[in-house]
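Lab channel / #folding
Pinned by the channel admin:
"Please post every new chain as: sequence first, then the structure tokens as a reply. Keep commentary short and put observations after the output so the thread stays searchable."

First post following the new format, from NK:
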Amino acid sequence: MALYRRGIIWWCRWRIGGAETRETTGTADRAQAQEYHDRRRADLWRAQRLGERRVTWDEAALAWIDERSIHKRTHSTDVLKLRWLTPRLTGRALPEITTDLLERVRDAKIAEGRAHATANRHLATVSAVLHFAARKSWITAAPAIPYLPENAGRIAYLTHEQADALLAELPEHLAQMARFTLATGLRRANCTGLEWRNVNLGRRMAWVWADEAKAGRPIAVPLNDDATAVLQERLGAHERWVFTWRGKPVIRTKTKAWDAAVKRAGCPAGLRWHDLRHTWATWHAMAETPLEVLRELGGWASMAMVQRYSHFSPGHLAQYAGRIARGGHEIGHSVSEDDANPLIIGVADGIRTHDNRNHKPPTGNVLPLNQAVTANPARKRRVRKG
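Reply from TO:
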């Protein structure tokens, strides 16, 4: 019998080339099980008789994570995404992973209450695996990835008063780290992983090695007075690590203590540690720090990321905004260079009618815009149309 049950799940069994194969279909629906059986048997036949290789999602994902992702800084994040994706794609041959199927996978993530950006990051992982498989010639091409639109959103940052309130509410070890982040703009991982060997208080400098930086470039961290004060408070607390708690390096910052402090300080709900970096960059932009300098200080790979803060620093545009100052004149009016010429009234005065005539003709030394200016307006002759 080609299909049979084990409990409520249908299994399939067939013999090709003298070899018997048994597999679970993973479904309790008879129609779906029959479809799986027919497709799987055809794939096995083509593999044995025609030499075609049937690569499943599981094989491709494992090969990708071993060959490509293991060298990425986001390797652990990739593993977590694959743990969520694999149960929804397991056992499927790569050609069976279509755009329609990925839409269902995407919608399953949205149904968990996740944002579009989160669903898109999972789809990006699927895309990486499928394009990797295409380079291996396991599939002809990857399908279209059904990404969702993402809102640009607003950058969350704190005012100086809010930052002071938050620091007063945080426990000491988190407050010191937060002060250091607000002073240097370092990312969370670079703060928690900061070692004393990467600090030179004499030169008031710290640094992040390229293999520890998100952009893959070393970051020079000049220490201002606030950052230096924090490090001086931490001297002697630990031989190796700068920021510790109970003798061990700090790993987690988004804790119950953080959430409680954010609430007591009256900061925006959902405030993240990374928003302290946004706050640091925003304060710099408001202080007119050149964006190129800000890029170097923050360790961004390109100016595109820094441009998010450009609207906080419009000072260089002020001289241009003033070039069209009205100077006491109404919009739509202009003064002739010749003192003898009258003031010309434009359409902006709102005095035109449907026949382009002045509803209330001006009096005195003023002419409508559609009437020519002459030395003696009263003696202007009408020109007949031929």
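NK: The first helix runs from residue 30 to 49.
TO: also worth noting, The CA atoms of residues 341 and 376 lie 9 Å apart.
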